[in-house]
Write a structure and sequence with these properties.
Oligomer: single chain
Shape: elongated
Largest sheet: 3 strands, mixed
Order of helices and strands: HHEEHHHEHEHEEEEHHHHHHHHHHHHHHH
Structural class: mainly alpha
Distance between the termini: 61 Å
Radius of gyration: 28 Å
Number of helices: 22
Strand order of the largest sheet: 1-3-2
Number of strands: 8
Number of domains: 3
């Protein structure tokens, strides 16, 4: 029973009244909530049995975080074990955070003490559990939250994709009943992970690289006229039509929609025969630039069900795929130097890590509150657009550097070369600023502001962008 202040009388509950077994990978905070539910009380009432050293973490702007985690000292763990009716060694095997409080709370004496943390900072990504699985095992369906990497998000039994718990959004899962290929991808990943181990690679690193490759394709896919698979899946997980809130659904649905391709890419990158194709495309013993029509990228496109994808993947310079290809080539040539990131095919650069759902939703929320003002350039501008702008700037710089060496000779010849070169540089600069203007408008900056920055009337800028085939619709 609880007193008027919400504290449990006596500071504890009689041990062993109910048995509340943990789920593998469950957060300690989730187990406390489920235990409270089993005893018919609110979680905050049961939590009054512990002394807390800080407050529960919340979302920016308010609201409790579903991925909140608690660390308990020895007395606190003993108390929870008694409430659950489960031995401590069982809880230690099931709960990744079970003993994480020892170092931080060792000096707290014999009182049960708890410390709040964010789950992702304790033991990795946190996701919602499947309520149907919880109900099947316990007879009730409270929310369970567990540590789960991206490759363990499909509930095969109930055909659900379990979403990140760190994002401030209401959905716990996406319905996969119309997408058997996503469920099949979950089953297939187990064999791909075993293949990675046999190849001496860590499965989580292989998955992270493959996810980064496919997530980068996802950013570019809105410009792919022949892409029909992902739009169909996205509409399916959105309940039939994502059109009313496409930006949000592209964020929430991304990991589920691209999962089959991520598994296929991981399997492809582990295939020694595919690595041989990279070596052959590079010229083998006679080095050359990787071609746009290379055999490796063509086969890769075929293996993800898109025979037309090869040239697009091959020319996406500076991405995680070409970095992997470069490492494979350096290893074959013995030119990688001592062991390190530059000759480790599975090393993923920080800038190649795919953004999380929570991060993207925060950016989207800021965009809607103040279009263009709160958006980071990398989040607002697709990677392909950024690459084209950078290429245009680099070309301009190279052209201008070349002009430094043409100021000797007959006056007419020097003037001709300079004027032609400067004219070409001017066209490159114009191309760069047009692309930048389009990117800014597409990123949410009003056309009027962009026109002011380039010192041009709004209608003139609008017509100029339209005439160049770069109208953004802004």
């Amino acid at each position: 029973m609880a007193n008027a202040d919400g504290a449990v009388q006596g500071g504890s509950l009689p041990p062993g009244i109910f048995r509340v077994a943990p789920f593998a990978g469950e957060t300690t905070a989730s187990l406390i909530c489920r235990t409270a539910s089993r005893y018919g009380m609110e979680a905050k009432v049961l939590r009054a049995c512990w002394k807390w050293r800080n407050y529960p973490p919340g979302h920016e702007g308010g609201g409790a975080r579903a991925d909140a985690e608690v660390l308990l000292n020895a007395a606190g763990r003993q108390l929870l074990a008694g409430m659950c009716g489960v031995e401590e060694d069982v809880l230690a095997r099931a709960l990744p955070s079970w003993e994480e409080g020892d170092a931080k709370l060792r000096a707290e004496g014999g009182d049960p003490v708890g410390l709040w943390r964010i789950g992702g900072a304790v033991a990795g990504p946190v996701a919602f559990g499947c309520r149907l699985c919880t109900a099947r095992r316990t007879g009730t369906a409270p929310t369970a939250v567990r540590y789960a990497p991206r490759w363990e998000r499909a509930c095969v039994r109930h055909r659900r994709w379990l979403l990140d718990a760190d994002a401030n959004q209401p959905l716990e899962h996406l319905d996969l009943r119309g997408l058997p290929e996503v469920v099949a991808g979950q089953r297939r990943w187990a064999s791909v992970a075993r293949r990675a181990v046999r190849a001496g690679a860590e499965p989580e690193r292989v998955f992270a690289l493959a996810h980064a490759v496919v997530a980068r394709w996802w950013e570019q896919a809105l410009q792919w006229e022949r892409e029909t698979i992902w739009p169909r899946r996205l509409h399916q997980v959105a309940g039939g039509d994502a059109g009313g809130d496409l930006e949000r659904w592209r964020i929430v649905g991304r990991d589920a929609v691209i999962f089959p391709e991520v598994v296929a890419v991981a399997d492809t990158l582990l295939d020694p025969a595919m690595a041989e194709l990279v070596w052959a495309d590079s010229g083998a013993g006679r080095p050359r630039a990787l071609p746009a029509d290379g055999t490796f990228c063509r086969r890769l496109g075929e293996r993800v069900g898109r025979p037309w994808l090869g040239p697009l993947a091959a020319t996406d310079y500076g991405g995680p795929l070409t970095s992997w290809m470069g490492s494979v080539i350096r290893l074959r040539r013995g030119a990688g130097g001592p062991p390190g990131y530059d000759n480790d095919p599975w090393w993923l650069r920080q800038e190649h890590h795919s953004s999380t759902m929570a991060g993207q939703l925060r950016v989207l929320s800021k965009e809607k509150k103040a279009p263009g003002s709160g958006t980071m350039w990398r989040a607002a501008v697709p990677a392909e657009q950024r690459r084209l702008i950078t290429s245009a700037i680099d070309s301009t710089e190279e052209q201008l550097l070349q002009l430094r060496g043409v100021q000797t000779g007959p006056t007419a010849d020097v003037a001709r070369r300079l004027l032609r070169g400067l004219g070409h540089s001017a066209s490159l600069i114009e191309n760069a600023w047009k692309r930048t203007a389009v990117a800014a408008v597409n990123g949410g900056v009003p056309l009027e502001e962009v026109a002011g920055w380039v010192d041009m009337p709004v209608e003139v800028l609008r017509k100029m962008l339209s005439a160049g085939g770069q109208e953004s619709g802004g």
